[in-house]
Automatic annotation (TrEMBL):
It comes from Lapidilactobacillus achengensis. Pfam families: AAA_33 (PF13671). InterPro entries: P-loop_NTPase. The lineage of its organism: Bacteria, Bacillati, Bacillota, Bacilli, Lactobacillales. This is AAA family ATPase.
């Protein structure tokens, strides 16, 4: 099974993925942006694009890697990645589904103030790319294909993980009850995401 966490930049995909991965035995986290980083490092400047997803190779390689992991890895794969362009969606998620791979697609939403608060906690609010993405993603997203929408504005990452696990009929370990311990774990996850 693949659990795909979609949604706007800063909505909490990476933190939710880390929470799910930590609490779900036999799961792995897959970051499609690593393929983009590889492409950007290897391609000459004249061939570089601003958005990883615009590379046909990004879509093909992520599809192929996810297919291999899903079919041969025998584990739940958690993918935190915004994927809104319909053609790109079809080339990755659509093809995985055509291969009879169980892709559970969740679209995380939050009000703009919550997203700004989360970006500020991450230290990304002054990042020009982050701010641009935040402005670009305020358009209606009702046409996101086959997604279970989750409004995360009033939810903790542990609550989002609990909801997704229940919806997927997966048993996960209990959440950390102590809010300070949970905050420390989330801070550690944030640092891992920065250097991942």
């Amino acid at each position: 099974m693949i659990i795909w966490l979609n949604g706007a930049f800063g909505v909490g995909k990476s933190q939710t993925a880390a929470e799910l991965n930590r609490r779900l035995n036999g799961s792995s986290r897959y970051d499609p942006d690593n393929v983009g980083t590889l492409l950007r490092k290897q391609l000459p400047k004249s061939l570089r694009l601003d958005n990883f997803q615009d590379y046909p190779e990004w879509r093909q390689w992520n599809y192929q890697l996810l297919r291999k992991i899903a079919l041969q890895g025998k584990q739940t794969v958690i993918v935190p990645e915004e994927l809104l362009e319909p053609r790109y969606f079809d080339e990755v998620i659509g093809r995985l589904r055509q291969d009879q791979i169980d892709v559970r697609h969740y679209f995380l939403t939050a009000d703009p103030e919550t997203i700004k608060k989360r970006l500020k906690l991450r230290g990304d609010l002054h990042d020009q790319f982050a701010v641009t993405r935040l402005k670009d993603e305020q358009a209606p997203l009702d046409d996101v294909k086959f997604a279970q929408k989750i409004d995360t504005s009033q939810m903790t990452y542990a609550e989002i993980a609990d909801f997704i696990a229940r919806d997927c009929s997966l048993r996960i370990q209990p959440a950390i009850k102590n809010k300070y311990a949970q905050a420390a774990v989330q801070l550690g996850d944030s640092f891992k995401n920065l250097w991942h």
